[in-house]
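To the structural biology subgroup,

Please find below the input and predicted structure for Tetratricopeptide repeat protein, which we are adding to the shared reference set this quarter. The sequence is reproduced verbatim from the submission form. If anyone notices a discrepancy with their own records, reply to this email rather than editing the shared folder directly, so we keep one authoritative version.
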Amino acid sequence: MTVDRLRLEQGRDQALRDLLDLERQVRDGELPADVADGLRQTYERTAARALALLAAPTPDEVGATSVTDRSSRRGRLVAYGLAVAVALFAAVVLLPVYLGERPTGGTVSGNEALGPVASGADEDTAPRDLSTVTNEEMEDVVAQNPDVLDMRLALAHRYLDEGDYLAAARHYLVALDREPRNVEAQSHYGWLLMQAGEPDQALEYVDRALAQDPRAVEALWFRANIALYGLSDPAGALTVLEQLQQRTDIEPATRSQVETLIAEARAQAGSG
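Predicted structure (tokenized):
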């Protein structure tokens, strides 16, 4: 790792830590909102600049012609394109979980904090559908209910899907500060790092999530994609994907996505 890249990573991490500490100071009444707003903009600009520079090609990569370099660049480019496939996977398989359709006995989604729909519903039992709620509304609710992690994570997932990595990172880091072993926050922050061009760090976070819950479907899916598209490791991806393929508790849509990626991993393994 070059000195410049190390400095960028340190700057990014420090800015994100500063944002995290700023949220705590505002929450605890240590800073007035107007002062916090100015500091937040400064920290966000610093983190955004570092993330953008880290995601850009290095001078060594520009014009490189070796097989290794071409493979590495292709991995990064496909990883960004793969966001579409991962978004589809989330929309078809995982979105109902984010929107409150939790299994009986599961954790609450957090949308109870939004209150009932405006009309035509039982005010005691009908929370609002999160798909009709704006990011701004959710930000307000998260600020008013900072301990409802599921709501914060639902908002962070939205930002991640929209490509607003800085806003997503802020909420994931707050969630991890409050609940360091949260599997959902760990795995999604790992996927965010993958999108920011940091597959090695991404893998660390996803592996932490899998250490807590080795059967977490999202974390396994992210790990396979990181291996295949971020680390150019189709064999590692196949190990995870075949594990998912053998599961009897996943939906047909999930299985279809897994089988599609298995075919891609086998193709890459063959061409390599």
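Summary notes: The chain has a mean pLDDT of 74. The radius of gyration is 20 Å.

Regards,
Lab coordination
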